[in-house]
Write a structure and sequence with these properties.
242 residues, 31% helix
């Protein structure tokens, strides 16, 4: 696991965008695994700015997002379908037919998850998987558990995750209680993994991810076993790693 220290959020975003853009430039038809949440937004903005300058071309890229809330339609402003278009896809030249997010609008969890596993496998899994990390060490919506998950599955969100995500909703009561997410095994199939983290609130999770025991109690700790994982985090997020 390689750790890159950034000065602040902007520096973290720029460094992460550099890694993603290099992947696209080296392999124009690459498969990107993407994440939502507030942490990657800066990287997406930087990539969009570089696209506008003509420095990076997304025309042949395909993407597969980690997760989606269960029960939200694709055009719901709180859905991750909507998030990705608003924060990234609508600002670059990617073919929307090549973008994929789990179908949270499908009430049949088994069918929705099985279908997503099939299309991710058919794509050959991501060349580069972007991840954030939750305050409790979750990746995607893989919450602390007594085992590491495998394929895409439906999860009950923990109270800490619901609290953390409530800032994006009008009320905590509006936060969905379940989500469809890629499993940790699926994430580990990516050829390269990029984790971004910022802020003091993530410091314990980042420490446990990088230096703690490999345990499903901290799902991100499994990344220690990946052969090509890079962590880009700001000084505050790395404050317990020194």
């Amino acid at each position: 696991m390689k750790i890159i220290k950034a000065k602040d959020y902007e520096d973290m975003s720029r460094k992460a965008a550099n890694i993603i853009s290099a992947q696209v430039i080296l392999k124009p038809d690459c498969v990107l695994g993407l994440a939502t949440g507030s942490t990657p937004i800066g990287a997406y903005k930087q990539l969009a700015a570089w696209y506008e300058k003509g420095d990076v071309d997304f025309a042949d890229v395909s993407t597969y997002n980690l997760d989606e809330y269960r029960g939200l339609s694709h055009d719901d402003p709180q859905s991750y379908h909507y998030f990705m278009r608003e924060n990234f896809f609508d600002h670059i030249n990617i073919d929307l037919n090549n973008t994929h997010v789990p179908d949270g609008s499908n009430p049949d969890a088994a069918a929705a998850c099985s279908e997503y596993d099939k299309i991710v496998a058919a794509a050959g899994y991501p060349d580069l998987q972007l991840l954030g990390i939750g305050n409790n060490g979750h990746i995607g919506f893989n919450e602390p558990d007594d085992h590491f998950s495998k394929g895409t599955h439906c999860v009950d969100l923990t109270e800490s995750t619901i609290q953390a995500n409530s800032r994006l909703f009008d009320s905590i009561d509006d936060v969905p209680r379940q989500a469809y997410t890629m499993g940790t095994q699926t994430i580990m199939y990516a050829r390269r993994i990029l984790v971004v983290a910022n802020g003091e609130a993530k410091a314990q999770a980042v420490h446990d991810m990088c230096y703690g025991p490999v345990t499903p109690a901290c799902p991100a700790s499994i990344l220690q076993l990946h052969t090509n994982c890079v962590v880009v985090a700001d000084e505050a997020a790395l404050s317990l790693c020194e």
